[in-house]
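hey so i finally got around to running the thing on that chain from the lab meeting. sorry it took forever, my laptop kept dying and i had to restart like 3 times. anyway pasting the input first so we r on the same page abt which one it is
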Amino acid sequence: MKWTGKHIALYASLLISVCAYLILAFYTDRTQYIQLFGLVAILFGCYVVIYKLGSQLTSLRFWFQAAIIFRCIFLFSTPALSDDYHRFVWDGNVLLEGINPYQYKPIDTLREWSAFDYEFELLQNMNSPQYYSIYPPILQAFFASTAYVSGDNLLVNVMLLKLLILIFEGLTLFLLYRLLIYLKQPPERWFLYAFNPLIIIELVGNLHFEGIMITGLLGTVYLLTQGKYKWAAVPFIIGIGVKLLPLIVLPLLWAKLGWKKGFTFVTLVGIGILVMFAPFINSVIIYNFSNSLNLYFQTFEFNASLYYIFRWIGFQWSGYNMIDSIGIINGLLTLGLILYISFRKQINWQQTLLHMLMIFGVYLAFASIVHPWYIATLLLFAAFTPYRFAFIWSGMIFLSYFAYRDQTYTENMWLVFIEYAIVIGYLVYEVWQQKKTTHSETSRIP
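ok and heres what got predicted. didnt touch it at all, straight out
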């Protein structure tokens, strides 16, 4: 093989990426924001090179292996940018003890567990001991399984959970490529998701289960495109069993399938949800679970966009934070827009995937909390469209980690403004360009 400047740039980008991921995995804490931002900037620079040149210069098998290797770098490290894993391990151990994880708050069991070093350590490091668990049953089963295998070894438990996400991520990469080919989309779009630094850092790296939920969603779409709408309910149920978020595209899928097939699909999904929750459910559990969800959406605030604007307006009008009222209004607006998008005409699956992108975009636009890993689903569906604002966002959203520079967890609103100004500005530009292109193509039709 004759080496060219493109080859050198590409393989240098791979090597630099490996080094940067190693430093992020083992030598970077979220309080080290300058080091974090610098490494992320380097990784996104390499990402652009890999996306531009990767499909031109070597085989897909090589790139699939490279994408998996990048993720494997994080297998043996504890998450550096998130401490949610303490709750994951806690829930798993609680379930192994025969205790319903939805029935008690961890803080309520402090006295009973304080004599046990491992459980007490988990409690001490947990970021939400005063809330009931909000993790659905399939995720709880994963927690319990890894807790059973790992015993009291936290690192092994974390490694096994990461391995689960890695396996599902491998399936996602396979399905993504198959769907792009089936829909006659440019295959190089596969690189947009496979090598996106946010996906690699936040899913396997920081142990966020959007990596499994995404596989469920993608598996659903893949089976639906093959006409297997009954079987498609299975991966969709798995996605809901990991994160409840897939429920927001249920109206869209019903509309896509039509009344009869859609009713069958939704009925199967409903039965699956009931079966999943049946072992845990009673009136107290329903109250605890719904109460935790309500607190989550009407108490916490982080890296929001429209919500922060509405909050500022509320302050000017009332003199206090109207989060309760804003949360309800935003929820109703989100629901209304989701239903509007869902029942718009869908000519083909390409348009349906664009509508999915729009639905998740609306959800995030009105959310009061937007952690970096929340936009992983947006990145997946953006890969099926000509829009690239989500990938710009995947780089800019790391600015939100500035809030973790010390124990006050105070956001810098200028950084939040910069993040969203760039992302929204680019989105407006892309929409304008798309309309301009569509108008130009229409005007040429005789």
